[in-house]
Structures are given as structure tokens and as C-alpha cells.
């Protein structure tokens, strides 16, 4: 199904309210100031799917039914199809300036679980993949948005999940039943939930049998009974701004804590239930694909930051020529994360069951770049824009339009001869939002810790093999080993 904005908004309005912010229950996520901007950001993806210019990016054909579907519900079984994931992400950032997790994590999760369920079914004789197939057909038929949740609250990092004083620090199965499972616990810092209709839950780590109850993969409705959602993105994102305000864009992002209290998940929506042996496979496959694709996210926002820099230079009364080197460096940063991600995909291969799995070492290398290069891009954007962008000392839209003081504020905000005070104000606030405020994506920890990525790069780099290459080139024949430390 190729879904429209109107169908998407109608579906969100029909859901049970279970999201809170500032202690207030949000009755309608499409209208509340804490969530409506994130909903608007996602809605723009459905708009694009219904245009001739961009439908190729946002739609495709189902490999199961041959019917037209939203691309974010598709199986990525070739290099071209997984590269379409990156193209969609970069396009969405260009449209919104921010993360739209409903078009992202659930899509990756379903492809990864297709691979893992095939392996579990082969070893255990389970029917997980058939259950997953039926859910995917449902997702394709409806065109729903599906957030994804891996990260657990975790508790004391020195203890295993089963050793925690609070066993609910990580999401886990508290009751196994013939017709499904009952789950409790917390998923934390989850993006795009308020804008999505379902949530694909994955294990937050690889587990041993002692922690098998935490080896859980399933899909739940966002408004499932027993789930309470606490929105926790920047407090400023919850301001009820006046019509036409430039204090924040019409788009935004939400992140949340998901608090599960004995939620029942029917059997046909459960795709892993205690198979600890395969929980690590989920993490391996998921991070390989997700960390390859995330380079497109920061590249897309970086594209907008270059544009904001152009606008600010001109609004300040300057040509962009003096800033050419800065803008080149911004562009190089963008293309680096995008290109390393694409390289990880190109170096990958299809899983025996179909889905494309990116090269793990290159994907984690990309995550390390994602945790560094975008911050340099933001710094350059601030440098180009000047103090009005970076200091935070800038009048609000309400002061800008105040009947008594507005004219004075506008008089001193105006700079470039042919550009209005309002245009400079909007460009400055956008630059501020992109580099300091609610528009900042999770570069450092979004998609996982860069330290974790470094561990994967370390673990997959064959140092001894490389040392042998060097020995042959240098003509060294003796053994060259790490020194043995003397025993005390």
C-alpha cells in the first residue's frame, strides 16, 4: 500500500493515548506541541511517496506479493535495495533536518530478524520466520510506521541482567505461555516512537543462557496495554509556539523511555523467546546494517547545515566565497560518512535466507566517523553564521513581532542590504537548532556507542595477518611477538 499523509495522521489519532511529557498525558500526538513536529517530519515521507519526483525513493515492489509498497516495509535482498535505505535516509534529513526513526529502525529490524529466524528455525524446528512473514505482509499492506527498540535501561553496568537488583532494568520475558509471552522492563532513549504505530523490540545485547529471558524479539502496537511512554527529548521541543514562529522548525524529533508492565504479546508477533544463543547474531547483523546506513543520516543533515551556512553568510551581508574552504570541509565530512556506509554495504553479501548484510568492520568504522565528523560540521556552520548562531543571545519570535519592541529588534537584527531581518532571523535560528538544539541527531550514541564500534573494529582487524604482510615486504624471517611480561 502506498499510504498518504491523511491516512497516516488518521491512524495516529485513533490510537490509545499512552505518551506523557512534563507529567501530562498527550491525547493527540498529531496536535500536541511535544510530538506534532516529529509527526510532521514523518508525514513528509508519505507526501514524497505520492510524488512523481520521489516515489522511486520512498516506494518499491513487494518481493512477496509483487504489489507496490512503502519502501520502509520492504526486504533488502540486494546491494541496490540496501543502498536505497541510505538514499531514503539522506532524503528525509534534507526534508526535515532531523531524524525520522519510524522510517528506519523497524525496517532494519525486520530484515535482520528474517535472517536470524531462518537460522533458529533450522536448528530448533520453530516457525518464527513464518510468523515474521505474516507480520511483514501486514506491514506492507498497511504501510505502517514501525519504530525499533534495542537499548535497555541496563542498570548497574558491572552486573548481568539477571543479577540486577531491579530485573526490569532490561526488557525481558516474565511469563511463557502457549499463546504468547508476557514482558516487563524498560527500553530507553528510543527514537520515533510517538510518530509510529508499532514498535519492533530486539534484544539489547548478546546473552548467555543464564539471561535467556532477555533474549526477546517481537512487535507490539505502540498503544499496547501495559506500556507507558515518557517523552524525554529537549524540553524546548514541548513549547507551544505561536503560528509562524521561527524559534523551531515545523519538524522535530522525539525520544522516549518505554516502560512495559506485564504486557501480553501474542504468539504470532513473537520472533525470539529465550533463544540466547542467537541474541548475539541479532546484534551483529543489526549493527552492521544500521551503522552502514546511519552515515546517510548525518550526511543529509550536513547538507542542510551547508545550506544554512550559505543563507547566514548572505544574510550577514557577505559573499560565500570567503567561506569556501569551510564549506568544502563540511561537504567532505558529509560524503565521508555517506561513502563509508555505502562501502560497507558494497563489501557485504546476502545472507543465505535473502537479506543483505553489510560488512561489519566497515560499518563500525563508519559509526566512529559518525561520532566525530558531524560535530566538526556543526562547528563550521557556527563559524560561518557568527555569534548570532552560537551564543544563544538572540531574541525570540515573540519579541521579534512584539507590537511595542518588535520594530526595534528587527532594526538591529537586519544586516545584509537586500535581505530582510526575518530571513536572517530564520536562518540564524535554524543554524542554532541544527548545531545546538533539538535538531542535533544522536551522532555520539545514536545507533550505539562509538567505543563499542571501536571494539568491533579491533576484534575484526587481523593484526597478526597484517604483521606477516609487513614481514614479507621487509624481508624479516624471525618471529616478532609481543614481549612476555615477567611474573612477579
TrEMBL record:
Keywords: FAD, Flavoprotein, Monooxygenase, Oxidoreductase. Its EC number is 1.14.14.9. It comes from the Bacteria. The keyword Zinc-finger does not apply. Pfam families: HpaB, HpaB_N. Residues 4-272 form the HpaB/PvcC/4-BUDH N-terminal domain. GO terms for molecular function: 4-hydroxyphenylacetate 3-monooxygenase activity; oxidoreductase activity, acting on the CH-CH group of donors. This is 4-hydroxyphenylacetate 3-monooxygenase. It comes from Intestinimonas butyriciproducens.
